[in-house]
Amino acid sequence: MKWRCKWTLAGALAVFAVLQLFNPPRSNPPRQTDFQAAARPPAAVVAALRAACYDCHSYETVWPLYARIAPVSWLIAADVNEGRRHLNFSDWPGETARAARNLDRINEVVDYREMPPKKYLLLHTGARLSEAQRQAVMAWTEAAANQLRGAANN
Fold first, then answer.
1. 71: preceding bond cis by omega (within 30 degrees)
2. Of the residues 24, 39, 50, 128, which has the maximum number of CB atoms within 10 A of its CB?
3. Contacts by 148-153 with C-beta closer than 8 Å and gap 24+?
4. Is residue 142 pLDDT above 90, yes or no?
5. Is 91 helix (H, G, I), strand (E, B) or coil?
6. 39 with 87: CB under 8 angstroms?
């Protein structure tokens, strides 16, 4: 019985070691466009977005130690890649209509409390938005999107 337990443990450790060879790349490419310069949000909104959104939705991701250990690294890299694909503050669109759609989407997911996701908040308590922060983000995104649409119509 003891030998079976030892071999099982040795096999599990060997599999775990081999999995580490297949870690996905963790990268933070250079910023393409500056969201803050393009959209000009107030400082309180910038602080809330940085705390709650930038790890998955920018090229300023902070990769914690556990993001280097498979299979957790696969999940984190997939979440970051998906987040960047949907919305990327480091590659903010110059096109007015697309920027307005991004702002509308931010407003929607914050309003419905879809973002930040609950699984992210388990380990990142600083990413929890207070009600005041949520209201500030939603008020600014709505006003900025309306302003962009108005400018596009003129």
1. yes
2. 39
3. 148/96, 148/97, 148/99, 148/100, 148/103, 149/96, 149/97, 149/100, 151/96, 152/96, 152/97, 152/100
4. yes
5. strand
6. no
pLDDT digits (tens, 9 = 90+) for 42-98: 999 999 999 999 999 999 999 999 989 889 999 999 999 999 999 999 999 988 999
Global confidence as pTM: 0.84
Q: Enumerate residues 6+ apart whose C-beta is below 8 A from 154.
A: none
Place of tokens 């005041």: 132
Q: Band the pLDDT of 12: cuts 50, 70, 90.
A: confident
Q: Which amino acid is at 111?
A: D
* Encoded amino acid at 44, one letter: A
Report angle CA 23, 50, 35 to the nearest 5 degrees.
100
Spatial separation of the C-alpha atoms in residues 2 and 118, rounded to whole Å: 41
